[in-house]
Amino acid sequence: MMRGAIHYSIVILLIFLCGSGMSVSRTESLLHEWCGIFLFLCILLHLIGNRKWFTQMTRGRYNAVRCVITVTDLLMLVMIILIAISSVTISGYIFAPLGLGGAAWGRMIHFAATAWLLVLTGFHCGMHMKIEKRNVFLYLAGAGGVIAFIICRFYERLLLLNAFAYTPDLPSWTVYLLHALMFAAFTMIGSECRRFAAKERSDT
Ligand code: HEM
Ligand code: HEM
User: Fold this and answer.
1) Quick one: 188 exposed, middle or buried, by C-beta within 10 A (0-12, 13-18, 19+)?
2) How many CA atoms lie within 13 A of 198 on its CB side?
3) Ligand 1 centre distance from Cα of residue 67 (Å)
4) Distance (Å, rounded) from C-alpha 83 to C-alpha 107?
5) What are the residues whose beta carbons fall under 8 Å from the beta carbon of 191, sequence distance 6 or more?
6) What is the chain's mean pLDDT, rounded?
7) Is the CB of 18 under 6 A from ligand 2?
8) Which backbone phi and psi does 175 adopt, to 5 degrees?
9) Of 79, 119, 150, 169, which one's alpha carbon is 20 to 30 angstroms from that of 159?
């Protein structure tokens, strides 16, 4: 119950933050900073709940699925650390009194690491979700996500091809929706990988 609430909170906050980061409204930026801090708390609770993973990482055998899950988890941790550092340096409100003052490198790191966190978290969810049957809704949302990926030029954020996020000229709720669809696409890819791996195992 508690675990589910944390999972949902992380997904909703992540989609909101990835969309709101692209907004220029001042009130939304303050909300962005508070929600970012709240997301960190949720991730911390999730990691405390899974603390065994840290101690068991060096034990047991690694098959392909465990390797993929572990590499994804480690990359997510790297992104979280990068986002934490960059957030403090670019903060316009909460951490602004520290006077670390909007470093350009901080902005670039924040820009790319948040995009990668969306990809990795979607994939992580898909790898962990135990969907036995093929889910038509996930496929439809995932297909929408592929289109959203192109409309939002998300690849520019992942590969740092541009200094600022390209924001499509659309109402802000649409920008959130496009990010939610992209999240669904990454989840779909994760769950397909999981299904493929399970099939390989049952075939041998
Ligand atoms: C960005 C934040 C996240 C990080 C850093 C993170 C990290 C981790 C780690 C290290 C583990 C333990 C190792 C493993 O089984 O992979 C884990 C387990 C798990 N994660 Fe996450 N995770 C995040 C977000 C999410 C989200 C959003 C969901 C769900 C939709 C989720 C679902 C799960 C599930 C189902 C498990 C298996 C154990 C459990 O039920 O708690 N995670 N996560
Ligand atoms: C995991 C949590 C977070 C995510 C996913 C996220 C996401 C984003 C995204 C996608 C942007 C747009 C990047 C750009 O166009 O340059 C952005 C900008 C920004 N974020 Fe975050 N953010 C998070 C946490 C935080 C936190 C905790 C703070 C501060 C306390 C923060 C402060 C800012 C600021 C000030 C900007 C505007 C940067 C600029 O001047 O262009 N963010 N964020």
Assistant:
1) buried
2) 13
3) 15
4) 10
5) 126, 127, 129, 131, 135, 138
6) 91
7) yes
8) -65, -40
9) 169
